[in-house]
Amino acid sequence: MTDKSVKHEKAAARQVAALFFTSIVGSAFAVYAYFAFPITEELGTVRLNTLLLGLGITLGLLGIGIGAVHWAKTLMPDAEVSEERHIARGSEEVRARAVEIIKLADSESGFSRRKLIRRSLYGALALFPLPAIMIFGDLGPNPGDTLRHTMWKKGTRLAKDPSGLPIKASDVTIGSVFHVIPEGLSELEHHKLEEKAKAAVLLVRLDPADIKESEERKSWSYDGIVAYSKICTHVGCPVALYEQHTHHLLCPCHQSTFDVTDACKVVFGPASRPLPQLPITVDAEGYLIAQSDFTEPVGPSFWER
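^ thats the sequence. predicted structure below, dont judge the formating
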């Protein structure tokens, strides 16, 4: 209808411009949401920031995409044309013809003539990358060697997750499993989730006769009690499923399976290396404590490369 009616042509032009303006509003809203709803230690702020930022970016991209399609569908000629492809530079006549075609396309699309559409498109294209730039800014500084270290250090008590209560060796019976965090983690005011993601430990007590320990690691356990990183060495999922009968730890994400009796070596699945062991002992009051930090990086193998 737009090629036969000036009224419909103008209406379509306004619709295209409106879609491009919608894109501008969406991109601007994404930038506003990034600053107005910052991510804090509260988990709810992560959800709200992600939701609003995603809505803004989606609106920005959809506005440009739908506007461009609507422009092509309603205001540009829909006649099909074909052209021979050339692998070498064309002759002067061909190049002149190409220039002529470009000018014709410009004339038919109205790109030079329709200032409202052109300027709104410029605005949409200029603003829609801004949310991405904001997100790249969140990548932050180089982490350096922070991924190689956790909160564990010599003398840190092993505490129950999430209560933070210290654990005595006498509390751990054979076959029992404790989800463990470093004492004091619950009181952190900043970066609590990041520290917990690195330091989470699974504590298990076995019959000492069942444990296969190397000479180096014989002092890393206490009376059959062993502590291993809870972070799978495949892609970092929490390894939280313990099968008491086989003494196997199972990662629910990709079914990597580790043998607790044999230094948590991989017995099945895609993980490429054992779970790091936390050297432990007891203090004068009988509480379980760490002898040091992990002796190797926890989590996926790419962290140490």
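The CA atoms of residues 55 and 241 lie 37 Å apart.
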